[in-house]
Amino acid sequence: MSRDRTPDVDCESLAGQLAPEIEPPADLEQRVVAGLRAAGALKPGRRRWAMRDLVAAAAMFVVGLTVGVYGWRGSPETADGPRFLFLLYPDGPSQPRGPGEDAIAREYAAWAAGLRRSGRIVTGDRLSRGRRADVGGADGGSLDSTLEGFFIVGADSLQEAVHFAEGSPHVRHGGRIVVRAIDTP
Amino acid sequence: MTPSADEGALLDAVCRGEEAAFRALYRRHTPRMYAVVRRLLGARRAEAEDVVQEAWLRAVKRVASFRGESLFSTWVCGIAIRCAMEAVRQRGAPELADGVTTGHEGRQLDLAIDLESAVAALPDGYRTVLVLHDVEGRTHAEIAELLEIEEGTSKSQLSRARQAVRACLRGTRGEQE
To answer: Distance (Å) from the C-alpha of residue A118 to the closest C-alpha of chain B?
Structure first.
């Protein structure tokens, strides 16, 4: 605003001199949404993508509990602080499980045991390939069916979690791990 | 006035509690709500975020009753304005003064005062009418209904508010010289 405006400022044209909009603080949206959720006015689970994620997570959890081939599972909630979800994918299409699988399974078990001893692994398991179902979602899009297993690992930072993932036999054998931080309130 | 198809779909989705739709609505209308609330609160503008949050809470709870008789932006800003006025009243509005703005806020204006600061420094009653009329474009009839005052009161408050802003800006200019 200029300092040398005329003394008789035209207040009737204030509308043109003051911005009709002011950008609110960036975190306000999340606070408003949280308030509406708490009041029961919003249901985040009703978003289609959120529902699909929920179903996928639930399916993964159920299948993981029923398979337990590698015996990765540790004591629940053994890690304090930040936790990360490791999603294990093959490098390319899934290969048939064959005779060499037992040796690989032992490598996984040894790696998992090391992390478990240090209190890093919360839980983990391999997923069944055949027993799966896609539920919900009106667009017919399919979820990623190549997911082979998962871990929940405690780490101080994403960098440390990535370090753990890089040391896993899965990566060593050419597989890919997607590391996702678990959002905790 | 029927909402646009896009806005109507968003409102329907918000009625069903869909968060993504609400976020879209929030991003579309909050900058205007935030602007008017900040100006109405004047020196208490730090409370603007709480007021906007309360306004959205009320708006979402009542959105099913929105009939489209006005623009949704007008409707939701009206709720924000009422919330802001409640906040002003709860904390005790200063007495209206004739003529030039007075008080702590007025004395604190520095040489780089601008129109925004001059408006913020007005007594609450003046500022409210001036913001609603000159910035928000509300008519005196609408202001009278919103504030539960007579139309004549709205007009006189506006006239005095404009005088006060002029005097404030003149005074600042004089100090600079």
So the answer is: 40
The answer to whether the predicted template modeling score (pTM) of the entire model surpasses 0.80 is no
Q: Could you give the CA distance from residue A1 to residue A17 in angstroms, rounded to a whole number?
A: 9
Chosen for mutation from A6, A9, A49, A53 (greatest number of chain B CBs closer than 10 Å) is: A9
State pLDDT tens for residues B149-166.
899 999 999 999 988 888
State the average pLDDT over residues A65-81: 44
Residues of chain A with C-beta less than 8 angstroms from the C-beta of B60: 36, 41-42
Minimal C-alpha gap between A95 and chain B (Å)? 39
CB contact under 8 Å between A31 and B39, yes or no, is no
CA-to-CA dists, residue B161 to A3, A8, A52, B44, angstroms? 21, 14, 56, 18
Give the number of other CB atoms < 10 A from CB of residue A135.
12
Looking at residue B73, what DSSP letter applies? H
SS3 at position A153? strand
Residue B146: CB atoms within 10 A of its CB come to: 18
Residue found under tokens 């990535």: A162
